[in-house]
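SAMPLE LOG
Freezer: B-3
Tube label: C17
Construct: single chain, 685 aa
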Amino acid sequence: MWKSLSRLVPGHHSKPESTTTFCSRGIPDTTVTTQDGQGAPPVQEVANEPLQDMLDFEGALPDEPPNQQGDQLPPKAPNLAQRTTRSGRVVKPTEQYLEGLEQRQQGLVAWEVLVDQDDSEEIPTAAQQFQLQQQMEDPIAFATSANPDVMYLHEALRAPDCRNFLEAMDVEIQGHVKGKHWIVVPQTDVPKGTRILDAFWSMRQKRRLDTREIYKWKACLNLYGGQKEHGVNYWETYAPVVMWPTIRIFFILSILLGWYSRQLDFVMAFPHAPVEVPLFMNIPKGYRLKDASPQTHVLRLLKNIYGQKQGPRVWNKYLDQGLKDLGFTPSAIDPCLYYGDQVMMLVYIDDCLLFSPKKEAIDQVVLSLRNSHQRFNVDDQGEVKDFLGIKIRKQPDGSIMLTQPHLIDSIIKDLQLQSNSQVRDTPALSTVILHKDEQGKPMNQQADFHYRSVIGKLNFLEKSTRPDISYAVHQCACFSESSKESHAKAVKLISCYLLGTHDKGIILSPDGSKSFECWADADFSGNWRPRTAHKDPITSKSQSGWIITFAGCPITWASKLQTLTALSTTEAEYISLSTALWDQIHLMELVKEIKSRGIQVNCAPPRIFCKAFEDNSGALEMARLPKLRPRTKHLNVTYHLFREYVKRKEIVVEAVATEQQTADVLTKPLDSTLFLTLRKRLFGW
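STRUCTURE (predicted):
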């Protein structure tokens, strides 16, 4: 029998019935099966207590009155005080660690001590900056930590809408119980040497993108994956997601071919799949079992509970097999693109998009998912309007606009900008290139704003819908580890630019007569500073920038430092061109595959051509003529990959005037006139 401590909240009651076993507010009661297969008897009503009494604690629920057997909740974990290092850096345990610590029982897991081995000031190295650049490749993951709507349990219980979170917790437990995701077993049944893993709650407020109104409160019960051991209870962890360029290509095709679209959400997706190995978890905080004390019983997991290191991989493999059983074929280019009978499915973890020329075909797929032997719990959300935090709106002329005004509002709020603040025409000063500014005054993040949090949001915005701020955001992101006031000022300049382009984004208005176009550019050693080069070798790197369009619409772009130190302008331009064409070739193969499925992609038959516009004559000659040159032979292995495509005339490299180079906006700060000209050509606004 599951007993919810949230019943202490005033105004919420449960009516005991003869078969009642799960106490909750207005949620159907469900029998919880223990290992002996017997249902537990009903529970007695618990007296209401004032709400302030429930909230007067540090990161834990209040003690519950003892039950008839006199069982008490486990003791609270000791208060681990924060400490300050010699450099002044504050070290304190993480919220997740503290929540897990409070659930542990004496004798099950030894108390752990947090020890910080490094008291020195952390100075970012070139390797750390490149690691940050790689993290920025996944904007959604990079921005997650900056979401104020995601909370731990103790934070949610202090929120004004705590009752909604408590109800969401009951719904979550109810779902696990109905799905038979675990069984209750005595601790004596746990194999010797097997660690009993902690459980913790992750809470979230879901908002409508238009109004920012909270429409749903979610409580997700997680297993503490940080306690798992590699090679013991998990191995591989990688799980693919659909690429954003693939999503944009299918939106473009839906406009050109008049396809229907649908958005689906798999409810409690991960627990659809069974666990890979036997796992045992402590009873989650906020609930207890009658006749099964947390000191004597644990949960043996049968399903893939959230929080596991390999959880996304287990779910992906389960969904992949389920879709194959329904007749879908995965793409050889993008593993999260599936081809069915007149239906294409794009999967991003537990969210998916369906595209088809026939509405009835989409309806049939939704029905098949629900009736398959896997019995997928699918929420049909109708026509695509909001996907992964991006507002998707069809315009009167048939085009599609992708925007994130809510995210821009959040950034402006974090920076405390007013609506009457000065608006800028460009996101960065054309005369300033950021550097470490070692003599500059350190930024006061408590008095001003949290630099890293804002950079995470800006990166998500740039990677999703605003390539016009790519260069400026990349420059600021390089100094997330040791931000100075000069860097904070640059971030505010980006925000002043966003203030004037609040409702702007990518406009997908495809031209069916065009195929791929790739614009690549480089700024040779634009960050070079002779006075600091001996201490900061990163200044010797050149800046690459490229943007790839399909049917005249931008589908992918990048602004990043090159990993190889170029020795000349020609090398820098050639490296940028080659790196851009790695992405280009991948997308060309994807469109080839789409066409092989019988989809009428309007491109030059029988091969897919793209044009790569390059404004450096040396790089142009290197791309066209496979001649080994003494000064460029070190580029042979890494950067000559695309030459075979040039030789087969599948890629045509053409010259373009420097002032016409669209990718120039991604490599250096530009003056207002040139920036606005290139932006108009790229976005139409």
